[in-house]
Design goal:
The complex is a heterotrimer of chains A (about 120), B (about 300) and C (about 210). With about 120 residues, chain A is an alpha/beta fold. Chain A has five helices and five strands. Chain C has six helices and eight strands, in the order H-E-E-H-E-E-H-H-E-E-H-E-E-H. The chains are: A alpha/beta (about 120), B alpha+beta (about 300), C alpha+beta (about 210).
């Protein structure tokens, strides 16, 4: 895949979004957008057209599961990384079936976020 | 390790294990009670020396301690003991223990060992057991007392009612007991009470329960028993009491009296809505037996 | 992260605490699945600041009829002092006990007394509470110690109970979550009540957590 330019972070918690941003390398000039629930995430996806989306699962208004389905319907090639506190095997299976590239567990760790981004870019 | 000086004289057991359940420390108290020397067990898996420990339980407790850093408390009431140590006093075969398992943290706060602290609570358990027995048993006859019978009857009643199982009870009392007391004295009366209860107890089946209900009145709960079977049991008790030996050698010579009982039987049916009603029915049947000649069994029919 | 006021939490701090709880409970469920073979679903936790005295009323409203509940209570100490209350309805009690017995393969008589039932609830509660509290502490770089839990009935959760543990007029942090055991008709409530005596240590811990991402 080509180089990542734009990243969307969908999480209802301000802190959680802050933590993810903190894990994304600052020297790569990424453009970052945020959304605070699944529905806003889908809207922002349409207008912002990110290369990568970080998605939480438990959110008000629209859950991450639904948001992933919507985004995949808009763009089957959308690259989505799920970032969740719910790390039970069943959940991981469920989102993998929805076509997400990887599942990271919260709290995010710089090294694994970078690794995931590198992998997507084929680095 | 300067603390060892304390650990080795203290009156509780202290064991330290690594994360693989190998023994790292074994204090003198543990040696005294297990007969296993510290130098023999150190470095070995604990379970090699105590294969009878419920490993699933211990594993889980240790796992929880390592993972969560919390303490696991194994109560004597639930587990009796963790280490099987012989104990010949207090009526327990093995030492009753109260056990705590907890984490030991290294300098970086990570948990690299667990401790097990063992307290001998046998005497307290024996005391509790005795208190409990005193609370539920009749001092003279050794069978259950009325209070315990009533609480058990309530439980059995609810359970049988819920599952629609048969439940019967028998109430009986000793015929002319007052006359026995008056003519031979209370000491002899007590002997008769003991004899009758032991005869009844020996006639009943393992799951039945016998209690002294009042002065010379007794009550049996017969779980999973229909009234026709309860009638047979009652009849057997009546016969056995009638034919029991009642000889007593006193200072004024041998006494022997003929003792009989009257019995009333009732069964839980759809209309019986409380356990008190079940008791009342058996009591009514007993009253009928008394007033129609004694030394007989009467059943209370459905009302 | 701006933290000035030492008497209360900012919206952002509450958001962070909630997120940390969320993560902690996720890890707790995963670990519980491993340790006791039980899959527990913990709902997204909520955090409230309450006056200690209003605690009872709040819990009563949350769970409905307090009288119909049994509560496992356990105190713990870390940077701040707290008490965990694990409440579930009487109907869930037997189910919980059956589950526990199946898992450990412990042989008990069928007719267990109330006393033994309570002992067993204490052991279950000890693990469930231990998992949730210790994961939370771990994320905040805290080490907690626990006292043995005990079982109380809903009625025993009285004003005196609260007054014995907290200054009635002071505020407490209340964390609540709903837990459900997968594959069984079994659910209950977990409340973690922490005193605010040491609000600044908690704020320091939050600041340190943020620092990792700055």
């Amino acid at each position: 895949m080509a180089a990542i330019k734009k990243i969307l972070i969908v999480d209802d918690s301000t802190s959680a979004r802050f933590f993810i941003k903190g894990c994304i390398p600052k020297d790569k000039g990424y453009e970052i957008a945020e959304a605070s629930d699944g529905a806003k995430g889908v809207e922002t996806y349409k207008s912002f057209r990110p290369d990568v989306t970080f998605m939480d699962l438990t959110m008000p208004v629209m859950t991450g599961f639904e948001a992933i389905e919507h985004i995949k319907a808009i763009d089957p090639h959308a690259v989505i990384i799920v970032l969740t506190a719910d790390i039970q095997a069943k959940t991981i299976e469920r989102v993998t079936a929805l076509g997400v590239v990887t599942v990271l567990k919260k709290p995010p760790v710089k090294a694994s976020v970078e690794e995931a981004l590198n992998k997507i870019q084929g680095i | 390790m300067i603390y060892r000086q304390v650990f080795d004289v203290i009156n509780i057991g202290i064991v330290i294990l690594d994360t693989e359940l190998n023994v790292c420390y074994w204090n003198r108290w543990m040696t005294q009670h297990s007969g296993i020397e510290c130098e023999d067990i150190i470095g070995s898996p604990l379970l090699e020396f105590f294969p009878e420990i419920n490993t699933k339980y211990l594993d889980r407790s240790v796992k929880a301690v390592l993972r969560f850093g919390n303490f696991v408390f194994l109560s004597q009431k639930l587990h009796k003991y963790l280490f099987k140590f012989k104990k010949d006093t207090s009526g327990f075969q093995h030492m009753q223990q109260s056990v705590t398992i907890g984490p030991i943290r290294g300098s970086d706060n990570s948990i690299d060992h667990v401790f097990i602290v063992v307290q001998d609570v046998t005497e307290m358990a024996a005391y509790e057991r005795k208190l409990h027995e005193m609370n539920i048993k009749d001092g003279l006859t050794g069978i259950y007392n009325r209070r315990y019978l009533e609480s058990r009857l309530k439980d059995e009643f609810d359970r049988h009612k819920r599952y629609c199982h048969a439940l019967s009870i028998i109430m009986f009392d000793i015929d002319h007991f007052k006359a026995i007391n008056d003519s031979y004295g209370h000491q002899y009366g007590d002997i008769i009470l003991k004899k009758v209860s032991s005869t009844a107890l020996n006639t009943l089946r393992a799951n039945d329960m016998l209690a002294r209900y009042g002065g010379e009145e007794f009550c049996c709960i017969l779980p999973e028993t229909t009234i026709s079977n309860a009638m047979m049991v009652a009849e057997r008790i009546r016969k056995n009491v009638e034919s029991q030996e009642n000889k007593f050698s006193g200072i004024s010579g041998d006494i022997t009296a003929k003792v009989t009982i009257s019995l009333g039987v009732s069964e839980l049916c759809e209309l019986t809505d409380t356990h008190e009603k079940l008791l009342k029915k058996a009591d009514d049947a007993l009253y009928a037996a008394k007033h129609t000649g004694r030394n007989k069994v009467v059943q209370m029919n459905l009302d | 992260m701006e933290i000035n006021d030492d008497s209360t939490f900012s919206e952002l701090e509450i958001d962070t605490l909630q997120e940390i709880m969320n993560i902690a409970f996720g890890q707790a469920s995963a670990d519980l699945a491993d340790v006791i073979n039980v899959f527990i679903v913990l709902s997204v936790p909520a955090l409230k600041l309450k006056k200690a005295l209003s605690l009872l009323e709040f819990i009563n409203i949350e769970i409905g009829d307090l009288k119909n509940f049994k509560i496992i209570e356990q105190s713990y100490w870390g940077k701040s002092k707290g008490v965990a209350l694990l409440a579930f309805p009487h109907e869930a009690e037997l189910e919980l006990i059956a589950m526990f017995r199946e898992d450990t393969g412990m042989g008990f008589e069928n007719n267990m007394s109330d006393e033994l039932d309570n002992e067993m609830l204490i052991e279950i509660g000890n693990i469930l509470i231990g998992a949730c509290v210790s994961k939370m502490a771990e994320l905040l770089k805290d080490v907690v110690t626990f006292v043995p839990p005990r079982v109380i009935s809903g009625e025993q959760l009285s004003e005196a109970f609260v007054e014995n543990r907290f200054e009635p007029e002071n505020r407490v942090i209340l964390l609540k979550t709903l837990f459900q055991i997968e594959g069984r008709e079994l659910s209950g409530h977990l409340f973690l009540v922490n005193s605010l005596d040491s609000i600044h240590t908690l704020k320091d811990a939050l600041r340190a957590f943020w620092k990792q991402y700055e």
